[in-house]
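Data card: per-record layout.
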Amino acid sequence: MKSYRFIFLILFVGLSIMLYAQPAERMVQVIVSPERADWLYKEGEKVNFKVMVLRCNVPVQNVEIRYEVSEDMMKAHKTGTQLLKAGTADINVGTMKKPGFLRCRVFAKYQNREYEGLATVGFSPEKLQPVTEMPDDFLDFWKTNKEAAAKWDLEPTMTLVSERCTDKVNVYHISFQNNDYASRMYGMLCIPKAPGKYPAILKVPGAGIRSYRGETERAAKGAIILEIGIHGIPVNMPGSVYNDLSMGALKSYHSFNLDNRDKYYYKRVYMGCVKAIDFIYTLPEFNGNLATFGGSQGGALSIIVAGLDSRVKGLVSYYPALCDMAGYAYGRAGGWPHMFKTEINRTPDKLKTAGYYDVVNFARQVKVPGFYTFGYNDMVCPPTTTYSAYNVINAPKELFVAETTGHYAYAEQTNAAWRWVMNFLKNCK
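The structure for this 429-residue chain is written out next.
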């Protein structure tokens, strides 16, 4: 039975590689898999990983591997080397005596090039709780900020982007006033052409600076979709503009003013997402049913906005960032952007500010149904952190775990997420 299970995992990983266009150098695959199909163990149970090195799906003979075993995002506590005479090996990595994740990274050298594979198993992840505490005035802080932002008129603009329109959907480049003078938010808005009222999806972005084109195909299925940028710049400019900003004025934006809760960069971002809902409510085609949708930074924002604004009726979150960011200060993984992995950043002011912006404190406020999905091999938004946020959500929730994924999603995850949100909005009362 174990051998059949292992063969299935090999085929599954191979198919995933084809679907997601992994780099060409992955002609050699290092496959690491646990004995259990669900990748889950209880505290104290020992774990054995099966390793296989394949070239064009054929086991590589007499290849040496080295391996590193660590708790999620922590320094390796066990290392070693093995010679794979027939392309396979077993590695006993021990256990964990507390809830969390244990990762085995394996490196194989073939023809002077090193290849990597990894697997991460969970130990009672449903028991994980965040180390981030909620500030005593957390709710008052955000209530005050929302009230202040509400005083600013939207002053919305909508410009038809004719070259992006389809026979079923109109596309607009839009903007609206945020929470400060001369601070605007921009986005791409898709509205079905057929007369009627439609639900809306606020699609919030992953990290970075980029342009957006609009979700025309999905909007054609019967939804208003507003895809926003968060940086206060138009989202229809040439790519070189965003590249220059990424390397210049907006480089490391996630750390701007982290030592001051009132000036931290994400304050205008969070308020801008709330103002985006205000904008959606001005649309005559909107029927009052709204969900948030996003991955990584967007997965964080999807939860955050749902926790901030009662007008959100449902949410989809892929591998959310900004979860339990202070984890590193407590000897465990912290969420992207990993600001506290470096001890020099763990100042009292920065740690205090992070508490007002951490996803886990907004997750505690979520009262609406949600669809969540992430994987165990994610080292950008580590599973220790995403589970820490997910576990404190006291609302109807559905979790799609794709154990082998890193910081990406399989087509099955994406299809399930969009199917969930469209069905939810269709049946929302």
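Known properties of this structure: The chain has two domains: 2-126, 138-427. The longest strand covers residues 100-110.

See the next section for split statistics.
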